[in-house]
Design goal:
By secondary structure, the chain is mainly alpha-helical. The chain is built from 31 helices and 11 strands. Keywords: Cell membrane, Membrane, Transferase, Transmembrane, Transmembrane helix.
């Protein structure tokens, strides 16, 4: 019988292993980049710049969907497989690897279907932007050849890379990955040479790109199967019974976070090509890709460093050597930044002349653009050792924060700069986005490491307290928010922190609650962390903490006198919770209501009122509550999820942006106000049905954070604004954009300094929040201005100028509060706490 072997022992130190593996991968990618640049030069001299731009678009289009839909199985295999290797657990590792391959297959199918469906949307944008897909050139109208797009995207079906890469990285076989790294570009280079010699035209060069990807995608799983076979693991992996729906604990949350992060990372690679295609057309895509290939000589090695260093960091965390990580990754980051900046200087000084010797004048702008993309790549290199820290310390969501912020800054800067400095916009936008991402990931990585080091110094003691068990006493046929009362109560206490997964045994101690009584959300959270308390309302025992089933059945529902002889302390709702809801910026008396006495509809009204923010803008506070209650109730009845409501709002936001841009104000404000209304509904639906989640909050607030600057831009365009610093309307737009960012920074600094929001410090700050220059008040001002254009032609322009002025008045008020907060020596407290 052959025995599988999982050993990955090495006599080299961590630093030497990282250096050796990095050398392999950087050498591989450098060679691949040279071959890629050579292929590009040959193609550029053989076919038109427009045709080459179309090829680049198709290739980036299929890769964008591949990254968008692909679950990064390799990260999951390393994160969880490292423990299996340490424990020599062949069965567990086999199931994990098979799970990874199933994820790859599922991702491939979803990517292919998504690419075909979304291509129709691309064609719609092609009608909006006449220069899209080569229509201006007339040489190669891809939009009329859906079959060619479908054929190229069929590569997605066989693109199963994640699990195979995970196998090689887990077992430290970077030598295989290094050789495989030149397969695609090597095959493509041969194909390009053949196409050039035969004069094959665009179709021949497109075939070269296609075959290169085909060989790459097919060869990697074959090489991985060979590696598994050498370790006698192939048969166990094939015979394993891995559940795609229920893998080991913690896998799916990790997978989802890793997928979001990888999608954002892919946006830095493929999104620029798509944006350049839409804004500047296929000719500039060719120029941009030429510059990008130059930058790849540097950046490809950087991108792979996280793949080299991640397994090593995972090992260090596993064996308790976390305190060594920060110095290791920062040294690598500084070295990579230095190398990148030197390469930038070299390209800036010499590459433009070399490029001019081999390519036509159409490509001359590639050199100055490359001199911007290379320092952007140098910043990317500095971040390369830092992102793996977040995965190794089990905080992949923090990588999403950093990459997401970088992508948002890139998109905003790209569109803003494309209208001002033109073709150099992608380069400066890349620098701006990477500066933000690097700063954030450095801070987040240091925080994650410090937390683990602190725990290790304290003997591995965690501050987390095990969740108490939970049980319900009684029976009811009542329904609330479209749910049976028992299901709603279970959800409520799960959100409060109780463990509702397993029923409590007879002698198990936990939280016990009367099914008929509904607690306020904050009260249930406070009660769930108590012990030996009896919550009494109207002389009735409602809940017990730290009680057994027998005690609960004997006491709950009885008079308070029944507590005699027991060790439970009798408390009222106000004794358990003070009523201040920090997340909603409000003070509210905690309550517990009997469904047999208080009508369900009245309880729902109370819950809806409780779910509302106390300090918000005047539209949300005064106009939306009544209609929002009925819409929230309807959504709960038809079992619509909060994220579905948010998604509808997202598309309404896009529609509003488009109508504003076209100057179709009535439709714009209709869609815009409906979006803001649903922005109220989704949060209330989440809180009342107990379906709120971390990711739902990110999804909702992420949209809220990103879209206002685009609305302001669309208002500027709809008003006929001109991009000139001599135009008051353009100055106002810049002022609003800068003000939006400055205001967020001030609020963030205040929150960081004092632990609560600036808008709840004093009554003045709270009052200002009702009318502060945010999306809803600004939209109201703009709408009034547009309505007044019926009697005053320039009213819309003056409304826009007023928004800019009001923005900076509000910033001045918040800045004064920030300075005053610094000058006050005593710890600050919110007036609502008092």
């Amino acid at each position: 019988m052959t025995i599988p072997h999982l050993d990955i022992a090495s006599s080299k130190t961590v630093g030497k292993r990282i250096a050796a593996n990095t050398g392999l991968m950087v050498g591989s990618k450098a060679l691949a980049a040279v071959l890629g640049l050579a292929s590009l030069i040959i193609a550029a001299k053989s076919i038109s710049i427009t045709a080459l731009g179309v090829i680049f678009f198709l290739h980036s289009y299929h890769l964008f969907f591949a990254q968008l839909a692909t679950f990064q199985a390799w990260q999951t295999i390393i994160r969880f497989g490292m423990d299996d290797v340490k424990n020599n657990d062949v069965n567990s590792l086999s199931r994990l690897i098979q799970f990874g391959y199933k994820l790859d297959v599922l991702s491939a199918i979803v990517a292919f279907i998504g690419a075909l469906l979304c291509y129709k949307i691309v064609l719609i944008f092609g009608d909006i932007f006449p220069n899209l897909l080569g229509r201006e050139a007339g040489e190669s109208d891809v939009s009329a050849s859906f079959g060619m797009v479908a054929l190229y995207c069929s590569l997605l079906i066989i693109r199963h890379r994640g699990a195979s890469i995970g196998v090689f990285r887990l077992f430290d076989r970077f030598d295989v990955l290094a050789w495989h790294g030149v397969v695609m570009t090597g095959v493509r280079f041969i194909g390009v040479v053949i196409a050039a010699l035969l004069g094959a035209g665009m179709e021949g060069f497109l075939l070269a790109w296609f075959v290169g990807s085909l060989v790459d995608y097919l060869s990697l799983p074959i090489l991985a199967a060979r590696e598994l076979s050498k370790r006698n693991l192939l048969k166990p992996v094939l015979q394993a019974k891995a559940s795609i729906r229920s893998p080991r604990k913690g896998v799916w949350p990790f997978v989802w976070k890793a997928n979001v992060d990888s999608t954002l990372a892919a946006s830095n690679v493929h999104l620029p090509v798509l944006l350049v295609m839409f804004v500047f057309g296929p000719i500039w895509v060719s120029v941009y890709r030429t510059a990008e290939e130059i930058a790849k000589l540097l950046s490809e090695g950087f991108k792979l460093l996280d793949q080299v260093i991640y397994p090593e960091l995972a090992k260090m965390v596993s064996v308790g050597e976390v305190e060594k990580i920060w110095r290791l990754v920062m040294r690598a980051a500084i070295i990579l930044l230095g190398v990148g900046l030197l390469a930038s200087l070299f390209i800036w000084l010499f590459f433009g002349t070399a490029l001019g010797a081999v390519l036509s004048e159409e490509y001359m702008e590639a050199a100055p653009l490359a001199s911007l993309l290379v320092p952007a790549a140098a910043l990317l290199g500095m971040a390369a050792p830092l992102y793996p820290v977040l995965y190794a310390t089990d905080h992949p969501e923090r990588a999403i924060y950093a990459r997401g912020a970088g992508v948002i800054i890139y998109i905003i800067a790209f569109f803003a700069l494309s209208l001002t400095i033109g073709h150099m916009a992608p380069g400066w936008a890349a620098i701006a986005g990477n500066v933000v991402a690097v700063g954030l990931v450095m801070w987040l990585a240091k925080q994650a490491l410090d937390k683990i080091v602190k725990q290790e110094q304290e003997g591995g003691v965690s501050d987390e307290v095990p969740a108490p068990g939970f049980g319900l006493i009684g029976d009811s046929k009542a329904r609330i928010w479209g749910l049976p009362l028992r299901e709603w109560q279970t959800r409520a206490f799960k959100k409060a922190g109780a463990d509702v997964t397993l029923p409590l045994a007879v002698n198990d101690i936990g939280i016990w609650h009367n099914l008929d009584w509904v607690m306020s959300a904050e009260l249930s959270k406070s009660f769930a962390v108590t012990t030996d308390l009896a919550l009494v309302e109207n002389d009735t025992i409602v809940s017990l903490s730290g009680a057994t089933r027998s005690e609960a059945e004997a006491l709950i529902g009885k008079s308070a006198d029944a507590l005699d002889g027991y060790d439970f302390k009798q408390v009222a709702a106000g004794d358990v919770n003070d009523g201040y809801i920090k997340s909603l910026r409000k003070q509210e008396t905690p309550y517990v209501l009997d469904t047999k006495v208080t009508p369900i509809l009245d309880i729902m009204r109370q819950q809806f009122k409780s779910s509302y923010k106390g300090i918000t803008d005047f539209v949300t506070k005064w106009f939306w509550p009544i209609p929002a209650f009925y819409v929230t109730r309807f959504c709960a009845f038809i079992k619509m999820s909060p994220n579905q409501v948010t998604t509808i709002g997202f598309f309404l936001m896009l529609a509003a942006t488009w109508f504003f841009w076209q100057g179709q104000w009535a439709l714009g404000f209709a869609c815009g106000w409906m979006m803001t209304f649903l922005d109220t509904v989704d949060g209330k639906l989440a809180r009342t049905t107990m379906t709120y989640s971390y990711w739902g909050n990110i999804y909702d607030h992420g949209i809220d954070l990103v879209h206002p600057p685009f609305w302001y831009w669309a208002w500027f365009v709809g008003l006929g604004g001109v991009y000139s610093m001599s135009e008051p309307l353009f100055i106002a737009l810049i002022a609003i954009w800068i003000g939006y960012l400055v205001d967020r920074i001030i609020e963030g600094i205040f929150m960081r300094q004092h632990g609560f929001h600036i808008h709840v410090w004093t009554k003045f700050n709270s009052g200002l929040r009702f009318f502060i220059a945010r999306r809803n008040p600004n939209t109201f001002i703009m709408m009034i201005g547009i309505m007044l254009t019926l009697v005053w032609a320039d009213a819309g322009v003056w409304a826009f100028l007023l928004i800019a002025i009001w923005t900076w008045i509000c910033i001045a008020a918040n800045f004064v509060s920030l300075i005053a907060g610094w000058l006050v020596k005593r710890p600050l407290t919110s007036w609502m706490d008092a």
